[in-house]
């Protein structure tokens, strides 16, 4: 098999992904002979396309799944998509507008036909894109949150929780999205910093000509919904207005002045306009004082007939108009700008409107307790653990979940209204009719007499069941899949959905399986640009992931994303990281081509034994470190550990140790050992870089039809006898090499310039054992042991021993003497400062012992350096 000179990702990636799928390596079935390892994908919206956050999240999942598969576990990664009620309905409405069709002109059934048409055309794009990344999902298990079985699961849970008394219907103040025209949960609301204006307005006091009370508001367009002005009963400024009435500016309607200690005397004017329909706190105040509620906004944020003025205007347009009219009427005292926070819809970006609305709610308090307990006692571990505090605060302050949405795309709420306005909750029309007849006592009722609730359930009400529903755990609670794969092992997701997805899945798991849905939750950071901004299409700062893959290869992008992405911390994306990832793939390919280009001479003796012993010890030590990183979900650290092992230890050191001379052959045993090491390295790299490693794996040796790296066994730890000593001795030898290379760089001597090395050491055995390696790596013709520094030599200290490189005929001795003198003066000054510190009795007595020891070590090092420099100068 010919080996291309350069690695071509585009040719390799599609080939191997197709073969992995043809071999069925990603497919998984319950196997009692193997431990299960299962992961459910955080289902991306069907509206979605691959972005940088998906790249990071799914790369991490794939690393975990591929490693588990190689460890001999029955690895199952379940993919799927979320129907994303609000986002998808908005996309379909936009599509219809482009065709000249308005949603309001369609029946529900006709609209849903268009929605399903859109989903079938665009809904699977992101899953196909994930294949380009190398995601090893079991695609035969792909699920969709609105497919029939998962919809049935959602409705079963709704009916069950309603019958348990946990779901109720009621009028509450909710977050209203005027653009999406639906209620939102608190978690779907995004606060954004903004500059706002505070308007100080005059409300005329009734019966007192020329007297006003000044009220400050940021929303003058809502004054037509005012039902009172509240003041603190202890505020002496307004004692004379107790029991008085005032007029709403421009409108002229009379409203009372009410007294309540809720009003802060020190804030603003001390007078608060009370608008129960458009502010949560005002609503609570209205309930307390039995005030009427006047809702002046329709569901699109336009003023309705109840406003009397500015009817039909958008709320923000009305604000501009009313401020102008108030100012002309002399009713504006002043306008102040201030920093504020505006609440916006996560999906549409529209400014949220607090609104009283009849909605369905799920009681959360009783379910939150057990879900908090399993995180507190680490039955579900959060990585990093710092998110425990955030989770605790959320769960201890949980509110009832508004689960209804005023949309057509989604699971329709299974509540049926009788002609008298009462309702029943049922799984089917037949069951609803039976319950309705029983409830009303009217046996002549027909299904046509019942009206099903128009609303659908919040998208999260389906995705909170995901780890159970993907294994059909509601359809058949005792089926083989759910019993084998549940609870899943690891969940990889973003911190911003820790509460309204992760916490709710934990609640559902405890409620319906009496067990947690996963053991570990790895919380990724946000991918940001170099300026710290979140990557987004609107900012134009987010590269297209598929373009990156096309340019740098999937392996380059995967490793680039993981080079600097510790759990829970944001990743400052820099294209240089991806370039580094691509360079790593090239380094690996070139190392492979180098070893394959060597000619073998079977008659040669085994020359690389010492190098092989060292690298085997290094490999085993790295395995121990690597397993610890994976156990603690330190994914970036795991990658960097392998990266250094491959680039530094294997390519830059080991291969240089055993590389034969130009056009000279290598002995068979050294090459066999080297190939074995390469195979082990490919196994360690495969979860991170699946494509290039599989390609090299099949080039390295003849493979059987099922002998793929994708399913090769993960390297096992096999302790090396005297491993620590082997590493320590080689480290000393390599430090000597480094000393010689430093001198070459300082003196401008090329790597091939023949030099000799003299050593003044008590460990001559080290030089004897590693003579060949040191001479080869440092390009030395000879290493000798001496009692004193040779003439005209430059020295360095390594491991307490002194080494000298004779320089006669190599350099300008006068310039070298000047340089060494300056270096000696600096070292003497440093020694003096350390001695002063150690002669300070307070420091020696009060400092931590390890700090004192550190200073003493500095002194010893300085003195050794001074001695070596003095000898070098004497030699010159």
Secondary structure: elements and pairs:
Elements: H1 9-23, E1 36-40, H2 52-70, E2 74-78, E3 80-81, H3 85-98, H4 108-122, H5 125-133, E4 143-144, H6 148-163, E5 167-177, E6 182-184, E7 189-204, E8 212-217, E9 228-231, E10 245-247, E11 254-259, E12 271-274, H7 280-288, H8 315-328, E13 332-345, E14 353-362, H9 365-376, E15 381-383, H10 387-396, E16 401-402, E17 404-405, E18 415-417, E19 423-425, H11 429-440, E20 451-452, E21 456-457, H12 460-463, H13 466-469, H14 480-485, E22 488-493, H15 498-512, E23 518-523, E24 527-528, H16 545-552, H17 554-562, E25 571-572, H18 575-596, E26 600-601, H19 609-631, H20 635-658, E27 666-667, H21 668-685, H22 690-700, H23 723-747, E28 755-760, H24 764-769, H25 771-778, E29 780-785, E30 793-798, E31 801-806, H26 813-838, H27 841-846, H28 849-875
Parallel strand pairs: 1-2, 3-4, 9-11, 15-23, 22-23, 24-25, 26-27, 28-29
Antiparallel strand pairs: 5-6, 5-14, 7-8, 7-13, 9-12, 10-11, 14-16, 17-21, 18-19, 18-20, 28-31, 30-31
Helix pairs in contact: 1-22, 3-4, 9-10, 9-15, 16-17, 17-18, 18-20, 19-20, 19-21, 19-23, 20-21, 21-22, 23-25, 26-28
Describe what this molecule looks like in 3D:
This protein has 876 residues and is α/β, with parallel strands linked by helices. It has 28 helices and 31 strands. A four-stranded antiparallel beta sheet has the order 6-5-14-16. Strand 22 (488-493), helix 15 (498-512) and strand 23 form a beta-alpha-beta unit. Helix 1 (9-23) packs across helix 22, helix 3 (85-98) packs across helix 4 (108-122) and helix 18 runs parallel beside helix 20. The relative contact order is 0.09. The model has no long low-confidence stretch (mean pLDDT 93).
């Amino acid at each position: 098999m010919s080996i291309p000179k350069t690695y071509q990702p585009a040719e390799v990636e599609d080939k191997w992904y197709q073969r992995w799928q043809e071999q069925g390596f990603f497919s998984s079935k319950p196997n009692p002979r193997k431990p299960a390892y299962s992961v459910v994908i955080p289902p991306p919206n069907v509206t979605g396309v691959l972005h940088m956050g998906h790249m990071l999240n799914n790369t991490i999942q794939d690393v975990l799944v591929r490693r588990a598969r190689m460890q001999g576990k029955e690895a199952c990664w379940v993919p799927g998509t979320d129907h994303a009620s609000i986002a998808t309905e908005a996309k379909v409405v936009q599509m219809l507008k482009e065709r000249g069709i308005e949603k309001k002109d369609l029946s529900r059934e006709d609209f849903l036909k268009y929605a399903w048409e859109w989903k079938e055309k665009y809904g699977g794009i992101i899953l196909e894109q994930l294949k380009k990344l190398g995601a090893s999902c079991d695609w035969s298990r792909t699920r969709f949150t609105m497919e029939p079985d998962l919809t049935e699961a959602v409705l079963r849970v709704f009916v069950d929780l309603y019958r348990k008394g946990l779901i109720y219907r009621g009028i509450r103040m909710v977050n209203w999205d005027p653009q999406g025209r639906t209620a939102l949960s608190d978690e779907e609301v995004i606060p954004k910093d903004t500059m706002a204006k505070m308007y100080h307005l005059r409300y005329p006091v009734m019966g007192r000509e020329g007297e006003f009370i000044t009220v400050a508001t940021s929303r003058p367009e809502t004054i037509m919904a005012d039902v009172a002005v509240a003041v603190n009963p202890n505020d002496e400024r307004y004692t004379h207005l107790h029991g008085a009435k005032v007029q709403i500016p421009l409108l002229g309607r009379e409203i009372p002045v009410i007294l309540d200690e809720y009003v802060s005397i020190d804030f603003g004017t001390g007078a608060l306009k009370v608008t129960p329909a458009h502010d949560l706190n005002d609503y609570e105040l209205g309930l307390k004082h039995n005030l009427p509620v006047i809702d002046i906004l329709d569901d699109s944020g336009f003023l309705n007939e109840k406003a009397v003025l500015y009817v039909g205007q958008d709320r923000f347009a009305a604000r501009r108009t009313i401020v102008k009219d108030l100012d002309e009427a002399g009713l504006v005292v002043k306008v102040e700008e201030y920093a504020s926070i505006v609440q916006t819809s996560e999906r549409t970006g529209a400014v949220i409107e607090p609104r009283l609305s009849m909605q369905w709610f799920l009681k959360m308090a009783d379910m939150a307790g057990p879900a908090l307990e399993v995180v507190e006692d680490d039955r579900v571990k959060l990585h990093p653990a710092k998110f425990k505090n955030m989770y605790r605060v959320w769960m201890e302050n949980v509110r009832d979940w508004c689960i209804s949405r005023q949309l057509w795309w989604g699971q329709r709420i299974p509540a049926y209204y009788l002609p008298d306005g009462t309702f029943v909750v049922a799984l089917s029309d037949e069951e609803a009719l039976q319950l309705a007849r029983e409830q009303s006592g009217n046996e002549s009722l027909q299904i046509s007499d019942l009206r099903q609730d128009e609303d659908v359930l919040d998208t999260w009400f389906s995705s909170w069941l995901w780890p159970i529903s993907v294994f059909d755990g509601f359809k058949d609670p005792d089926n083989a899949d759910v019993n084998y794969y549940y609870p899943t092992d690891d969940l990889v997701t973003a911190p911003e959905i820790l509460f309204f997805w992760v916490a709710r899945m934990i609640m559902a798991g405890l409620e319906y399986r009496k067990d947690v849905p996963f053991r570990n939750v790895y919380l990724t950071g946000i991918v940001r640009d170099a300026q710290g901004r979140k990557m987004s299409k609107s900012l134009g700062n987010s590269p297209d992931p598929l373009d990156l893959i096309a340019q740098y290869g999937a392996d380059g992008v995967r490793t680039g994303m993981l080079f600097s992405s510790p759990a829970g911390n944001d990743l400052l994306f820099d294209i240089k990281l991806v370039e580094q990832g691509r360079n790593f793939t090239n380094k690996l390919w070139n190392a492979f081509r180098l070893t394959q280009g060597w000619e073998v001479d079977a008659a040669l003796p085994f020359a690389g034994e010492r190098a092989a012993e060292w690298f085997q010890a290094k490999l085993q030590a790295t395995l121990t470190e690597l397993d610890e990183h994976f156990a603690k979900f330190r994914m970036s650290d795991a990658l960097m550990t392998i990266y250094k092992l491959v680039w530094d230890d294997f390519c830059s050191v080991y291969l240089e140790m055993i590389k034969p001379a130009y056009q000279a052959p290598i002995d068979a045993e050294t090459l066999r050992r080297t190939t074995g090491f390469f195979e082990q390295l490919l196994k360690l790299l495969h979860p991170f870089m699946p494509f290039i490693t599989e390609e090299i794996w099949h080039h390295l040796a003849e493979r059987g039809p099922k002998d793929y790296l994708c399913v090769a066994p993960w390297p096992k730890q096999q302790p090396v006898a005297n491993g620590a000593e082997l590493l320590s001795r080689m480290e000393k030898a390599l430090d000597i090499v480094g000393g010689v290379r430093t001198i070459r760089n300082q003196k401008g001597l090329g790597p091939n310039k023949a030099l000799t090395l003299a050593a003044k050491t008590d460990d001559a055995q080290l030089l004897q054992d590693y003579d060949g390696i040191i001479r080869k790596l440092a390009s030395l013709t000879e290493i000798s042991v001496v009692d004193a520094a040779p003439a005209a030599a430059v020295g360095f200290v390594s491991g307490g021993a002194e080494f000298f490189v004779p320089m006669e005929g190599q350099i300008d001795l006068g310039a070298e003497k000047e340089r060494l003198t300056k270096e000696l003066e600096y070292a003497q000054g440093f020694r003096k400062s350390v001695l002063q510190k150690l002669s300070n009795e307070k420091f020696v007595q009060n400092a931590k012992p390890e700090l004192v020891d550190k200073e003493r070590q500095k002194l010893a090092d300085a003195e050794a350096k001074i001695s070596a420099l003095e000898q070098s100068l004497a030699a010159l």
